[in-house]
Amino acid sequence: MQTSRIWRRHGGKIVFGSLIAGSLLLSYKDIASNMQNLSQAREMISANTSKQQLLEEQIAHEKAQAAIAEARYNAGCTIVVAVNSPRNLATLVEGEPVLDRTTKKPLPAGTVVCDANGSTGVIVHNAQGELVVGQMAFTGNRELALEQVRKIRGAKVYYVTPEK
Known about the structure:
Order of helices and strands: HHEEEEHH
Largest sheet: 4 strands, mixed
Number of helices: 4
Structural class: alpha+beta
């Protein structure tokens, strides 16, 4: 009697609940794979977002570095030439010394140096106390770098520029 009353009162709910439980039981693998796919998609989105953020930070850093380098070129940096061929311009490398062409001694601290590729630096003391290129900044404005070379008219490169 109690059972028939429950069936009469809640029969539709029991049948409906049983159907839902059965369908969930039959499709649990699909649900698990969908949850895994969603988790993978979430991880991929997170990785892409962090990559995008790193790229945006890099662009901001490059713009700041370019502004510094352009200011150094406009203020008149010292062009550096190669040791083995004074008519050839050298590329600045952070941590390497830049020598005066006449005395063969390092340029004094605080000297702003540049190359024809758009790199600029300041002569600083390294951990060992040596005078080397540091505080590097790069501009992609190659025309600005070449303009600096034109200012010294190319021929003067041998006489007025330090060597690396």
